[in-house]
Design brief:
Strand content: under 5%
Shape: globular
Number of helices: 5
Largest sheet: none
Distance between the termini: 16 Å
Order of helices and strands: HHHHH
Structural class: mainly alpha
Number of strands: 0
Amino acid sequence: MIRRSFRAGAVYFLLLYVIGFLLGATRELLLAPRLGVMVASAIEALPMLAAIFHFAPLIARRFGVPPKSGGRLLMGVFGLVLLIGAEIAMTRAMRGLSPEEWLAHFASIEGVIYAALLACFAAMPWLRR
């Protein structure tokens, strides 16, 4: 079950990272200049949360990770570790921010919204059947 959980977590990360990247580009290029960063982040969070809610159980079932099991928690936590690593690397590459600067972002309203999405991302495989 551990191997299935890791595979499911990796696929979960990849799929949601691509969706998040596309939504983030839309937020940065279209929404934030017109509506402000906070409103744009809140708007982006809705389809991102819907994607997390939808895909977490589908991927877990596809990889045979049983509901309400430690494997589902492992899937979410492993996906989260991959996601945070990718986020830190991408912010470093695209914006030149250090990991410390990336962490400082969580002190803003946008960062709180993002932290809530990260928590949902990690927990959703276990919460949904």
